[in-house]
Amino acid sequence: MQFMLNQTHIQLDECAPDTTLLEYLRTHLVQRGTKEGCASGDCGACTVVLAESGGDGLRYRAINSCITYLGAVDGCQVITVEGLSHQSGQLHPVQQAMVDQHASQCGFCTPGFVMSLFALTHQPQEPHDTTPTERIHQALGGNLCRCTGYRPIIDAAKSLLS
Ligand code: FES
Ligand code: FES
Predict the structure, then answer these.
(1) Rounded distance from Cα 26 to ligand 2 centre (Å)
(2) In 3D, which of 109, 79, 97, 103 has the Cα closest to residue 5?
(3) What is d(CA 113, CA 56) in angstroms, rounded to the nearest whole number?
(4) Is the ipTM above a cut-off of 0.95?
(5) pLDDT (tens digit per residue) in 2-61
(6) Degrees, nearest 5: CA angle 75-78-81
């Protein structure tokens, strides 16, 4: 199987069928920006973005890497928080918005929120779509934060959609 991890091509001759994407990222590739919280698809700490080719270009969606088997990303691009900032060190606009709105405290949930927002900002708005606030709530519905409170995170999201 093969996939892109950010801009790096990864090819594996074999992998255990029960290896999760999160386990592979953190243990095998030592990419630890993606966090493990609940390990059962409930908290969003492990969120990464999957880019898949669709009929009209790439489609981006946030997934929980803790409940995604590695084999499921064959042929896709996996985007993690390590892949967002510029090589110069300049933050991605999503990251900068989180900083500007003071939307992080302990930071454990932050990569997951950032990746969910990254996916949101790459999704086309359907003509019949919901309001920006509804889109934000929908996009962040799977991400939990136990210390910041959600208002600054929502404010960061609003600044990105405005
Ligand atoms: Fe909680 Fe994956 S670690 S959803
Ligand atoms: Fe600590 Fe969200 S900033 S859990």
Answers:
(1) 20
(2) 79
(3) 26
(4) yes
(5) 999 999 999 999 989 999 999 999 999 999 999 999 999 999 999 999 999 877 788 999
(6) 170
Atom number in ligand 2 closest to CA 109: 2
The domains of the chain, with CATH numbers, are: 2-161 (3.10.20.30)
Which ligand approaches the C-alpha of residue 21 most closely?
1
Rounded to 5 degrees, what angle do the CA atoms 94, 39, 108 make?
40
Please report the atom of ligand 2 found closest to the CA of residue 146.
Answer: 4
* pTM value surpassing 0.80: yes
Q: CA 131, CA 111: separation in Å to the nearest integer?
A: 25
Instruction: Render pLDDT for 56-102 as a digit per residue (tens, 0 to 9).
Output: 788 999 999 999 999 999 999 999 999 998 888 899 999 999 999 99
**Tokens at residue 90, please?**
């300049």
